Amino acid sequence: MASALRDWLDKPNTGRGVHLAADDGGWDFRGYGELASAARRTAGALIEEGVRPGDVVCLILPTDFTCIETYFGVWAAGATVCLITPPLFQDGDDYVAHVAAILRQAKPVLVAASTDLADYAGRAMAQAGLPGEPWLPRQAAAEAEVQPAGELALLQFTSGSSGAPRGVMVTWDNLEANSELIARSAGFEDDDVVASWLPLYHDMGLIGCFLTPIARQGMLRLMRPDHFIRDPARWIRCFAEAQHTAAPPFAYAYCARRVKPEQLEGLDLSGWKMALIGAEPIDPHSLEVFAELLEPFGFSRTAFRPAYGMAETTLLVTMDKELRDPLAVRPDPESLSFGTPVRILEQHSLGRRSLGAKAGWIVGCGTPEEDVPVRIVDDEGRAMPEGVLGEIVVGGASACPGYFAGAEAKSTRFIDGEVYTGDAGFFHEGQLFVLGRMGDSIKVRGRSVYVEDLESKIAEVSGLGKGRIVVVGVPGAGQKGLALFAETLDDAWVPEVRETLRRRVGEDVEVTIVVGTGLIQRTSSGKPRRRYMWERLKDGKMDGARVVP
Fold it and tell me: Pick from 392, 407, 442: which residue ends a domain?
């Protein structure tokens, strides 16, 4: 299968390329001619190792030129890429178990790892029952011809659950359609520059800020996440030249806390065209404090582009592409029930009024494009009109065909060419407003935390059996929430569990703990009816329930 995403490997623009952040504060540059040659020589080495079109190759590599060359080397060999995160906050054994779970599902013909990660990779391969050792990336003497490709461009494993990761099958058609949507919505022009610190294993970092600019041979300034955490001003300084970026809401608030105006002295940010915000519910306060920091240097609030997307739709679903200040609304929390109209208590465009607007506020994520239809449905799958809360359903060419190897999720489903996202949302003034996950996970710092993992840990800490505990991700305007239902009348364990949850999900997640008997409702197959339980509690219909203060 041919793909425009690989065309640059045969026709590189030698005058452009990738600037990679160095640890000393400088930048290293390689042009697309050099990168294409290295990728094709890497493809030659992969072919020598037996990699063939349609095979899956897993990569466990830090963000560096070797990673870039190996990624496109896999594509040049016609294989499917599966990027696996390097260890970040997990200890060694947990990380190895997580990687092993991915390898068991992906069944790669080859696992490539850097020298410093080869031990982890080797242990994970052994746990997954894969023979051999990790492959250290190398290049053949001669450049290989770009091989025909199979149907899948990449396997994008959803982050979070160490026990049951799920690989989204992203076809070449999916990826091309979404990359085109991103470029069109962003107003990406031939000479534009992209700057990013997002990790490449995450769909927003990989597809939005890496594959899309490289496929168009745009200039790219690429940092590692740790570069951003240590010196967020370094990222902002990129926009003296760059026009496009993307980040979760917490990153903009982090910059506002850490960066001092004197660090930006002499900077002109008036050419900054797009600062996409996504990966978790967007609060207007985070955007406003960032805008007020940078406004003296020429930054405009109209550069903010709130967006909604997910791996199961390749990446982007909607982005507010209009040149306007983002719209923030505060819904009445009592009206947030599926299939009922949402009452809007207040609304305003981003500005000084947004300071302090955190919990209870959400920002519009734009109007859907015709080729990516979005609808809101109730529990019975019936389409709901504007203003009514329900589940977000996405169709079009970016909707992926499903999870690899028959894996299933509890909230996200693939039905008749559409993705039932498991996210709650509604339309208001033509824009999509997203509350977040409906039951089986919540977004924390851009990554999914799955309730099954939390249930296992809570069962261990509380001493209650796992069958007596159900955790629900609770959608709420501008904040993340969890509800814990426990089949017990005792609450002595609650303080320790609250502290455990604080360490796992952070202090900004609202936790509701409910004890009692007869609380847990299950389907005929034994699965917890998570959202149904929450809505019964909220409506006062859960007899015998007691909320622990």
Answer: 442
In three state form, how does the secondary structure of 142-188 look?
A: CCCCCCCCCCEEEEEECCCCCCCCCEEEEEHHHHHHHHHHHHHHHCC
pLDDT over threshold 60, residue 214:
yes
- Residue 500 DSSP code: H
What is the tally of structural domains in the chain? 3
Q: pLDDT digits over 500-521, tens only?
A: 888 878 777 888 999 998 888 8
Measure the CA–CA gap between 488 and 483, rounded to whole angstroms.
15
Q: What percent of the chain has pLDDT over 70?
A: 93
Query: Are 151 and 188 contained in the same domain?
Result: yes
494 with 519: CB under 8 angstroms? Answer: no
Instruction: Say what the alpha-carbon torsion angle 429, 427, 249, 311 is, to the nearest 10 degrees.
Output: -140
- Domain around 196: 4-223
Q: Binning pLDDT at 50, 70 and 90, where does residue 526 land?
A: low
Decide: helix, strand or coil at residue 457.
helix
Are 459 and 478 in contact by the 8 Å Cβ rule? The answer is: no
d(CA 199, CA 196): 9
CATH code of the domain containing 468? 3.30.300.30
SS3 content of the chain, % helix, strand, coil (to 5): 35, 25, 40
Pairing of β 110-113 and β 56-60: parallel
Question: How far, CA to CA in Å, does 463 sit from each of 43, 473, 491?
Answer: 52, 22, 11
CA distance 90 to 138: 28
Is the sign of the CA dihedral 483, 485, 490, 496 positive or negative?
negative
**CATH, residue 166:** 3.40.50.980
In this prediction, residue 160 carries a pLDDT of 45
Tell me the pTM: 0.83
